[in-house]
Amino acid sequence: MDKKMLLRKLLYVLVISFLPFSCSSDDEDIEEPIAAIEYPEQKPILGDSVRVVVLGNSFSVDATAYLNDLVMAAGLDTTRMCVYNGCINGGSFADWLELYQTGEKKTFTKMAGGGAAVIYEPVSDVLKRPWDVCVLVQSSAVSYSWSSFETVAEQLVALVRTECPNKQITLAYAMPWSHTVKSHPREWKGNIDCAIKMSQFYGVRVIPVGTAVQNARDTRLENGMYLTRDNWHLCHGVGRYIAACTWFQVLFGDAFHVSVLDNTAIHPLTEAEAGETGSVAVDDTNRRLCQQCACEAVKSPFAISDLQE
Fold it and tell me: How far are the Cα atoms of 137, 206, 223, 253 from residue 45, in angstroms, in the given order?
């Protein structure tokens, strides 16, 4: 193990060891996370194209809502990339397996890049398209409990790799953020542990949105609701923007030789967003801090970074 890897491992152990545990009755179903042996290598996503399909839920809607703004501001070639999100509200790995088995049609909405606005097909047909990346999204209600991944994760990974004609497809796992209705340290620790196991066992690339959001919760970006709008979903403005920056950096950073740092995209609130609780606009005074929270998470997916200004 090289010095950099050793230092990162030690940092992880220290952070996890000293996190406070303010448990309540809401936390009784949270399992003690499995201790990670070491950080799994996060391989870059490379290739001439980055065509992405997401087996997601409302958390992936949040994370990709502003993604196209970043893509356009970066000047990426949209003929070489696209992101399509399928959403089952509250959906889990098991829900996506069931939907595949029933043959029911599902809408996949284009969130960034080129191509048709929507794809409406059975999941089996959607997966037979030549995707470069498939992002898996677990239900946040169980994402901190490894027992919810056992068996179904293996089945879902095998299904994607079997159905997709691109046998070099990259699988990614979008690690969610912890809720504010749960004990944050324990749930965040569980989310990390499960993401590590997904990477270790199935070779998936982690998109560490949960870590990026956790980074931001200790900065001036905090909106008084832990960057949510309802104790679950990310707030409009900075919350969704941080998530989009994280996805952008993981999906496109290496393939397009670009960084989200100093991307000029901002997000003034729409009238509807401004009326939502916890909304904070993204402007030139806070966009770079949002981007830093994301970039530090991509560099260190399993540990909180100190970004106090």
Answer: 18, 11, 33, 8
